[in-house]
Amino acid sequence: METVVVNNETKKPHVVCIPVPAQSHIKCMLKLARVLHHKGLEVTFVNTQSNHKRLLKSAGSHDLEDAPGFNFKTVPDGLPSTSDADNIPNGLMNFAKTYDVAKTLNVPIILYWTHSANGFMGYYQEKVLVEKGLVPLKDESYLTNGYTDSLWKEEPECIQWLLSKEPTSVVYVNFGSLAVMSLKDLIEFGWGLVNSNHYFLWIIRTDLVDGGSLVLPPELEEGIKRRGFIASWCSQEEVLNHPSIGGFLTHGGWGSVIQSLSAGVPMLCWPVDQDQRINCIQMCKEWEVGMEIGKNVSRHEGEKLVRELMDGIKGKRLRMRAMEWKTKAEIATALNGSST
After folding, report:
1. Is the whole-model pTM more than 0.70?
2. CATH assignment, 157-333
């Protein structure tokens, strides 16, 4: 895109970026917006009012607030206040009618798809679900909470804690910004981590437990204090690239998979929904960079797989494969690489 002259004024190409209102999608879109701005384009980044406030608190955009040619705009989201352009909306934003608006205004549009190609093909079959009457949902009872509390402040104490640990000695645990689980499953995961006798950094969001309060047995809390560190959120890329991280227990969201492979970190995968099942099959069966944890979580399986990932022969093989993917990512994103 070239600079144009309008009414004797030189104007840069202008791009409007509209992400899905969820933490991982906002961060992916913000990263793309940074690149476009660095390339000389004017950028307007659109968020809901509540998520923009959370973005500021999470320290995700401070360097862009006063950057020339980079603008933040907000739109109402229905939540209380306390809580001439190319348009690049996130590919999941079909509910926001961005395509229809761009078509009406005769503005070029690019759909930025943040899931894998396999995940895209799954969503492409949405029309079949509509034809069978499975969607749209019938009433509010079908809805689950999630988007309104999707941004959390990153806690720098996570990195400070990692600084005291040996290389590849820590398991990083994060099930993403939207996935939920039962308290029973969370407790089983906890005992598996504690009994593995490995250090672990565990991200436990305030809304991670589905429909209940987060109350752990006192003996489990004691075990976590000895070997673990609990936080509500962190800078995931920074954590995964820290030398002390030796493995990643994840839900298998595409963003998490890409970040883990880019850091050369092997994974344990517990898929919850959406494209995560497909991603898990790819990384465990096709790429051989991870192992799957069964849907019915047990502390015994958790302990066994964490030990295998961190100390076992298979874990060493997975780590070598993950490092190969890291090298491929570095080549692809280097100067004149396939992704630059």
Report:
1. no
2. 3.40.50.2000
